[in-house]
From TrEMBL:
This is GAL3A protein. InterPro entries: Class_I_gatase-like (IPR029062). Transmembrane segments: none annotated. SUPFAM superfamilies: Class I glutamine amidotransferase-like. PANTHER family: ES1 PROTEIN HOMOLOG, MITOCHONDRIAL, GLUTAMINE AMIDOTRANSFERASE LIKE CLASS 1 DOMAIN CONTAINING 3A-LIKE1-RELATED. It comes from Piaya cayana. Coiled coil: none annotated. It comes from the Eukaryota.
Length: 225
């Protein structure tokens, strides 16, 4: 029987929701790994809405759960209904929605607050010693909730212009966590906390490399589950 894995989304679209390619990559690798997947998102209003064609704010309101349903093909539940006891692991794809809707990192950085249902979900899986997978900007959730944990968001320096958000690593360190430098096709496993992270689009890399990197994260999560 396959592992039961919950996937938590933050909307639909890189600039104000979940990064679609990361979410899809995670779901494909989970499917290939024989996992039984259920998808969740918080039933809250998005912090903002971005016109992805123009890259500018849009004067409208959208709901995170409703938008995430686009990625889930309609098969999704309110995050408030997620019970860690029913799953073997949880995975959070990245995208600015994580830093805007699941927490306030986009505005407050290391001083951010984490959505109550996101926080309780992370705590529940951690307390049950069940693995947590995070990619792109999502590792900041673990850094905020679990001081002292180990994560990666890629490199701590903008190597060859490939890591334009390298300062995120410093903010993670300031939270009392250990940042481990990894390439886009690698993931880091914090064995003590069962937290698996990979940088994904925090690195400017070809899509197939990001897809493969997310795959290493998924594989390690399934091994720990």
């Amino acid at each position: 029987m396959g592992k039961r894995v919950a996937v938590v989304l933050a909307g639909c679209g890189v600039f104000d929701g979940s990064e679609i390619h990361e979410a899809s990559a995670a779901l494909v690798h989970l499917s290939r790994g024989g996992a039984e997947v259920k998808i969740f998102a918080p039933n809250i209003e998005q912090r903002d809405v971005v016109n992805h064609l123009k890259g500018s704010p849009a004067e409208e309101k959208r709901n995170v759960l409703v938008e995430s349903a686009r990625l889930a093909r309609g098969n999704i539940q309110d995050l408030a209904e997620l019970k860690a006891s029913e799953f073997d692991a949880v995975i959070f794809p990245g995208g600015f929605g994580v830093a805007k809707n699941l927490c306030s990192w986009a505005v407050d950085g290391k001083n951010c607050t984490v959505n109550e249902h996101v926080h309780s979900t992370l705590q529940a899986f951690h307390s049950a010693k069940k693995p947590i997978g995070l990619c792109c900007i999502s590792p900041v959730l673990a850094a905020k909730v679990f001081p002292g944990c180990e994560v990666t968001v890629g490199q701590d320096k903008n190597v060859d212009g490939r890591f334009p958000d390298a300062e995120t690593a410093s903010a993670i360190t300031e939270l009392g966590c250990k940042h481990v430098c990894k390439n886009v096709n690698e993931s880091h496993v914090d064995k003590a906390n069962k937290i698996v992270t990979t940088c994904a689009f925090m690195c400017k890399a070809p899509l197939h490399e990001i897809f493969d990197g997310v795959g290493t994260m998924v594989q390690e999560v399934l091994k720990l589950a």
